[in-house]
Design goal:
Length: 279
């Protein structure tokens, strides 16, 4: 009997643990909470306002402290981050007809009709981004009344209208000036110091100028070497040189040649004339 009670206690504890874990998993994996966690992660803080399209896995949130906006797809699987000033406007459409609109530079088109029944309620956010210019949130579709969390089309329209008012407050604010690229300025050039002009020379008449130039001694180079005044005037300064140095044109001594010493006639070369006959 005691073993039976022990078994029942163990089964009860196990069932409670499984129920608790399952409930925690359902709570943690709830679509709304997943989108809020993703938006808090990309915005680096808790968003101050969030709108979620339940059943479509989409949501959007604004953080006015950091001036950033974020949108999420696939229950927060991936998100896109914008600046607040990139929001250009928003529009609300019911069954394909726009009933409210806010756009930068235009007057707000307020909702002038109350809709109780609708097949589709869509809120579109328009951003200044060429790649992702808009983001649609289908707040109500036909068949959502069968979900656990029941909402009427009127509730969806009221929530979308509050977002139109937020968008109108954002687009009416002046845009912050865009940061200009910083250009490193060159240091100013040092001003050039003007040198004082030389003082003018005193006026001098032309006659005085010519007279001063004529009286000014002029340096001249000597035309000849200095003359030795101690030498004997009767002695030529070049006699010693002639006696000491031999003449390059020395005359050879004359040697007379006699006729008897001449070679015989037969030994001489024949000439066309006889030199002895002429003598």
């Amino acid at each position: 009997m005691s073993e039976l009670w022990r078994l029942m206690v163990l089964v009860t504890i196990s069932a409670s643990a499984v129920t608790f874990l399952g409930s925690a998993a359902i709570w943690f994996m709830d679509e709304d909470r997943r989108i809020r966690r993703a938006l808090r992660h990309v915005l680096k803080g808790a968003p101050e306002t969030v709108i979620v399209a339940r059943g479509r896995g989409r949501g959007a949130g604004f953080n006015f402290t950091t001036n950033q906006a974020a949108v999420a797809w696939d229950s927060g699987a991936w998100c896109l981050l914008y600046r607040i000033d990139e929001l250009m406007g928003a529009e609300l459409s019911v069954d394909g007809q726009v009933i409210g609109r806010v756009f930068r530079g235009e007057q707000r088109r307020a909702i002038d009709q109350i809709v109780q029944q609708a097949a589709q309620v869509t809120l579109k956010l328009i951003f200044d981004d060429p790649r992702h210019p808009d983001f649609e949130l289908e707040l109500w579709l036909e068949g959502d009344q069968q979900r656990r969390e029941t909402r009427s089309p009127a509730d969806a329209i009221q929530e979308a209208n509050r977002w139109l008012l937020r968008a109108d407050a954002i687009v009416r604010r002046p845009l912050a000036p865009k940061a200009q690229p910083t250009v490193q300025a060159r240091p100013p050039a040092e001003p050039e110091i003007a040198r004082p002009a030389p003082p003018p020379k005193p006026y001098q008449p032309a006659l005085e100028t010519v007279t001063a130039t004529a009286l000014r001694p002029t340096a001249t180079a000597p035309l000849f070497d200095e003359i030795d005044t101690t030498a004997d005037p009767m002695e030529a300064p070049w006699d010693d040189d002639l006696d000491d140095d031999p003449s390059p044109f020395a005359e050879k001594p004359y040697k007379p040649v006699s006729k008897a010493a001449r070679p015989p006639r037969g030994d001489q070369d024949e000439l066309p004339f006889d030199l002895d006959d002429e003598d």
